[in-house]
Amino acid sequence: MTTTTPPTLDDVMAELADLADARIREVNERHGDDHAVNLTRLRAVAKRVKKNHPLALDLWATGDSAARLLALLVCRPREFSAGELDTMLREARTRKVHDWLVGYVVMKGPHAEELRVAWLDDADPVVASAGWALTADRVVKKPEGLDLSALLDVIEAEMAGAHARLQWEMNTCLAHIGIEHPEHRDRALAIGERLGVLRDYPTPPNCTSPYAPEWIGEMARRQEA
Q1: I need a labelling partner for 72 at 20 to 30 A (CA). Which of 87, 121, 157, 223 fits?
Q2: Residue 3 has pLDDT above 60, yes or no
Q3: Contact status, residue 171 vs residue 189, Cβ threshold 8 Å
Q4: What is the 3-state secondary structure (H, E, C) of the chain?
Q5: How far apart are CA 26 and CA 13, in angstroms?
Q6: pTM for the structure as a whole
Q7: What's the sign of the alpha-carbon dihedral 70, 72, 73, 79?
Q8: How large is the C-alpha radius of gyration of the chain?
């Protein structure tokens, strides 16, 4: 019988340094990120490391974005407290780290609803954007108990002037309300058309526009096909 020695923090950081590519960093910096490791290669490292929560904590503590992305892949989401996740979110200032923390960890743990409520009206718009991301997820997966009309009221009043990150997540929530809840579709479409948020967003061919009226319309057509 053979045993495998778990990798140390130094081992993993050395490997990430070897994988760093200045060209990747240059591209990522144009999108608000600063990691320099190809994400396919990063996922391969995570697959080899396997789940290792103590190592994930050490990787996060380095402050390095690639290390933090790896930490989010090898951690155990249910082992974090709500307070730890709140602290981590406020430390996660690059977009990819923020998005992976919310999508891969918070949404899969037991504190998602508690944090959704706490973050939704946070004074920091980037933190608030996480609350809206969790709300959009709940609109799709577990809408029971949500006041969708009240959410539309807030979106209608605040989305146009919101910080870009917050605006993006509010718009996502608007689109999901219109897509998943036909009884609110006309109002969601009207709000999207009146505010015009992301109307001119550059969308690659064969991709759905994030402009809510187009997004809602396309998904509604697919549902009816």
Answers
A1: 121
A2: no
A3: no
A4: CCCCCCCCHHHHHHHHHHHCCHHHHHHHHCCCCCCCCCHHHHHHHHHHHCCCHHHHHHHHHCCCHHHHHHHHHHCCHHHCCHHHHHHHHHHCCCHHHHHHHHHHHHHHCCCHHHHHHHHHCCCCHHHHHHHHHHHHHHHHHCCCCCCHHHHHHHHHHHCCCCCHHHHHHHHHHHHHHHHHCHHHHHHHHHHHHHHCCCCCCCCCCCCCCCCHHHHHHHHHHHHHC
A5: 20
A6: 0.93
A7: positive
A8: 19
216-to-8, 65, 97, 123 alpha-carbon distances in Å: 47, 34, 28, 29
| Cβ-contact 72, 88 below 8 angstroms | no
pLDDT of residue 68: 98
Q: Compute φ and ψ for 163, nearest 5 degrees.
A: -50, 145
At 34-80, the pLDDT tens digits run 999 999 999 999 999 999 999 999 999 999 999 999 999 999 999 99
Q: Report how far residue 68's alpha carbon sits from residue 56's, in angstroms, rounded to the nearest whole number.
A: 8
CA angle 80, 83, 84 (to 5 degrees): 45
Cα distances (Å, whole numbers) of residue 211 to 1, 152, 159? 57, 16, 13
Among all chains, which residue has been given the structure tokens 């009043």?
157
pLDDT digits (tens, 9 = 90+) for 202-225: 999 989 999 999 999 999 999 887
> What are the structure tokens assigned to 47, written together?
């697959």
